[in-house]
Design a protein that fits this description.
It is built from 17 helices and eleven strands. The protein is an alpha/beta fold. The protein folds into two domains: 1-314, 3-Layer(aba) Sandwich (Rossmann fold), CATH 3.40.50.11740; 325-367, no CATH class.
Length: 372
């Protein structure tokens, strides 16, 4: 706890806030990409302590929240099959599909197992040779190496009754899409430290050159986040006299050096590249972002649950008309600006994934009483 508490130190937090107040001279809108950072910000009240000139908006960095409704419905259909054991991380079970969620399937008798690793799902497959084990492989680049390794192990060990329902998405493509959107006005980004621990931050450098917008790799505790905000504001302030309001004398900066290097974990990147290839991917509430996801390469297509069960491809989906989670994920609106927030939409009766995910912005606002 010693090293965690150091990054929650109240005196250091106040000092950084004072330094930030002396540095900022105009209004800047910054987006924290990661849902874990969002929860830290709201839980600590950091957004309410920042100088008035700094506006934090929340991005699409919650992997549960952006898993498309079609894949949730496919998961529900697969989990309902008597020959399937469906393995998933626990936070996917409350995500609403078109008509029900995975918890409802489990309550009706579906064999759904909560696991903590894809290797747990692989062991279940070994122990149950008469069943097909389908693992719900969601997440950003952070979880991709372990999922890729599970597929490598399944092939090496000749395990035939294992498959993955893949819903992997990537952060750089999301930032690129945000910068191209006419509705999104963000001056700088706080990048997710855990993703960059795996991938490094070299992928962000072309984005800063293309859009002349600073990106700062940031951790998850209040002091980490304030360091990231300070670095971002310093770059923005340094370029405020240039022609574009987004200009900064910049690039990418690393405010999470205790965990992140420019190159990242090359071994982890190699196993991702071995098993997955880049593809277009739908994001819930946002739509299709080109070249923003991973799918299994043809060499590993046998382990693709959508190909193993082609009948799930015809499932029709229906999103709630009241849910504005797409606008929340794009940073266009905050959760408490949704008319359904805390009324028709609660953790007990969620309209969208952002209300039930452990990293969802709506869940953070509800949990910490941010109704206005």
């Amino acid at each position: 706890m010693k090293y965690i508490n150091e990054y929650r130190d109240a005196d250091l937090t106040q000092k950084l806030l004072a330094d930030l107040q002396r540095t900022v001279t105009r209004t800047w809108t910054l987006m924290e990409v990661c849902g874990g950072q969002t929860h830290s910000i709201v839980r600590s009240g950091l957004d309410r302590m920042l100088p008035a000139e700094i506006n934090l908006v929340h991005g699409p960095g919650c992997p549960v929240c952006v898993t498309p409704l079609a894949l949730v419905d496919k998961a529900i259909a697969l989990a309902s099959r008597p020959e399937v054991i469906f393995a998933s991380y626990g936070d996917m079970l409350r995500v609403p599909g078109s008509t029900r969620d995975l918890f409802a399937v489990k309550a009706a008798g579906g064999d759904i197992r909560i696991v903590y690793s894809p290797l747990d799902a692989l062991k279940i497959a070994k122990d149950n040779p008469d069943k097909i084990v389908v693992f719900f492989a969601i997440g950003f680049e952070t979880t991709a190496p372990a999922n890729a390794m599970a597929v490598v192990q399944a092939k090496a060990q000749g395990i035939q009754n294992f498959a993955m329902l893949v819903s992997h998405v990537t952060v750089p493509a999301a930032i690129n899409a945000l910068m191209q959107s006419p509705d999104v006005m963000v001056d700088g980004f706080l990048a997710a430290g855990h993703v960059c621990t795996v991938m490094g931050y070299w992928e962000y450098e072309p984005l800063t050159e293309m859009y002349n917008t600073p990106i700062v790799v940031t951790g998850f505790e209040p002091v980490d986040i304030l360091h990231g905000i300070m670095e971002c504001v310093r770059m923005l302030e340094a370029g405020k006299g240039e022609a574009s309001p987004r200009c900064a004398s910049r690039g990418v900066r690393n405010a999470y050096a205790r965990s992140v290097t420019r190159d990242g974990n090359r071994a982890a990147q190699a196993v991702i590249q071995k098993v997955f290839e880049i593809c277009d991917r739908a994001w819930r509430g946002i739509g299709i972002i080109p070249q923003s996801g991973y799918r299994l390469r043809e060499e590993f297509a046998f382990y693709d649950a959508e190909k193993r069960f082609p009948e799930v491809q015809t499932i029709e989906t229906k999103e709630s008309p009241l849910c504005i989670s797409g606008q929340v994920l794009l940073g266009v609106k905050k959760p408490n600006q949704c008319p359904a927030f805390g009324k028709e939409c609660t953790p007990q009766n969620p309209l969208g994934a952002t209300m039930v995910s452990a990293e969802g912005a709506c869940a953070a606002y509800y949990r910490y009483g941010r109704y206005g």
